[in-house]
Every structure is written in C-alpha cells, then in structure tokens.
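A.,

Following up on our hallway conversation. Structure tokens first:
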C-alpha cells in the first residue's frame, strides 16, 4: 500500500514538473535561413541529413497550431527539394527534452500534397533510438484546412504515447513520394534531468555504479562495457564527458560547486552529490 501511494505521488510530481516546463516554438522571432533556434532558454540545432533544412520566412504559409492561425516562419527544405527522400533532426546538447506535438506540411517536389508517402518520427538519446514510428496515412491534402498542415501528436501516435520519453534528438524522415516537409508549432517539454520519464526505468543499475557518493570530488564509475558517460548539472547542462572502459574508471568533479549532479550513459542515469 505504501509503495503504491509513493508511486502515485511520484507520478503526480512528474506530471506537475513536466507541465511547468512545456513550451511551444512558433519560429516567428527566429532569423530567416538560420540552422538553429532558441526556445525557453534552450538552443536547438537543425541538422540536415538528406536535403538542406533551415528556417524559412514566407508570408502566410506556416501554421500556428496553438491558436490555429496562419503564420510566416517555420523549418523546411525549400532550397533543395527532391526527387529524393528528405531527413533532418532537431537536436540539443544543452538539455534533454520530450516532444508533445508539432505540425507538418508534406508534399512531393512540386508542392502536390495529394500523393502517397510516409513520415518516420524517431527520438534518440545519445545516438541511441528510444522510439521510432512511421505514419503513412491521414495526412492533410488541402490547404483549405489548417493551411495544409497535419498534426503529429506524440501523446497519441497510432495509439501509443511517446511524449514521456526523454531524448536529445528528434529526427524526421520522409518516404514514398514525399520530398518536401515543413515543421511548425513545435511543442516540447524541457527536462532538467531531475525527474526521469517513465521510460527511463531506473536511476542506477548494476551496469553503472558510482562511488563514493556523496563525494568531495574523486569518483569511480564502474561500467560493464565500453561506453560514454556525461555529467549534467541539476538544470540539465552538460558539464563533462567521460569515456568509460569496461571495469573501474576514475574521474573528478572537484572543480564543480557543491550540489546535485547526474551521470548518464545511453541507457542509465544516477544521481551524485558533491559535498
């Protein structure tokens, strides 16, 4: 009974914390042709994988999802459209985040929306895929509704909730006859790394042991395989990167102020107290 009550309280705290950190980027104050944007104090980079993506400024061709009105700026690949699939990522190294929803306009290379294609939405953390889902139907085919944009809602994407999964990179990849994509009204949740989402099941495990804890500075990180660990502040800022070898690895945080820090690998995270 006590454990159940504790779980309910923790779930409520996670919900409250996440709600307070929700933000929507409309791109209206961002610079045209920029390959980065800043929202809620976090810098996101726009990474082009196939085709070239940046922020475009074109009057009345975007979609302001929250207030359901037309706007002017968004991310797209206007300058290098097909005929080939396109792919880009929104990625940050300063914070972890979760994605709630965003709007996309998809078409072939000649702006015809009435074609068959697919959109694969992939969330990654430190290069490791945390979720991936392909949508191949129910795209808007007319600008008469929502200015041609389709809502991608990660709280209920094909019956699954991906909005509680912590990532540092969101990748979108087109398939079929879709060669052009515009993204607008990007709603996300800033994660300070204090509270982990339900998909990040443990704060520590046998594969990531850190000692002494608390520490004055010296730390030993025991890993079961070669990997990379990052040390974050309580605000989610990356402070150090440590290359781990199988076995015991020594590092030091003597240069950091007293406080709470987090050490994360691709699959595990643990809290460390510097005193």
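Then the amino acids I'd put at each of the 275 positions:
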């Amino acid at each position: 009974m006590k454990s159940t009550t504790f779980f309910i309280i923790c779930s409520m705290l996670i919900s409250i914390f996440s709600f307070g950190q929700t933000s929507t980027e409309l791109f209206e104050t961002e610079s045209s042709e920029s390959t980065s944007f800043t929202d809620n104090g976090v810098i996101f980079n726009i990474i082009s994988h196939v085709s070239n993506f940046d922020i475009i400024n074109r009057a009345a061709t975007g979609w302001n999802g929250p207030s359901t009105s037309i706007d002017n700026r968004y991310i797209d690949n206007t300058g290098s459209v097909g005929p080939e699939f396109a792919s880009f990522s929104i990625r940050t190294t300063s914070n972890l985040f979760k994605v709630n929803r965003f709007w996309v306009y998809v078409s072939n290379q000649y702006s015809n929306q009435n074609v068959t294609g697919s959109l694969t939405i992939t969330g990654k953390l430190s290069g490791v895929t945390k979720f991936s889902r392909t949508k191949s139907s129910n795209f808007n085919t007319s600008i008469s509704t929502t200015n041609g944009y389709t809502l991608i809602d990660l709280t209920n994407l094909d019956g699954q909730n991906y909005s509680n999964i912590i990532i540092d990179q969101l990748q979108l990849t087109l398939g079929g006859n879709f060669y052009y994509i515009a993204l607008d009204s990007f709603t996300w949740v800033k994660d300070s790394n204090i509270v982990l989402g339900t998909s990040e099941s443990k704060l520590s495990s046998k594969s990531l042991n850190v000692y002494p804890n608390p520490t004055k500075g010296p730390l030993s990180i025991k890993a079961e395989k070669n990997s990379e660990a990052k040390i974050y502040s309580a605000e989610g800022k990356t402070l150090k990167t440590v290359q781990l070898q199988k076995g015991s690895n020594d590092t030091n945080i003597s240069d950091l102020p007293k406080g709470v820090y987090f050490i994360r690998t691709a699959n595990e995270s643990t809290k460390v107290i510097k005193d």
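The CA atoms of residues 78 and 180 lie 7 Å apart. Curious whether your intuition agrees with the design.

B.
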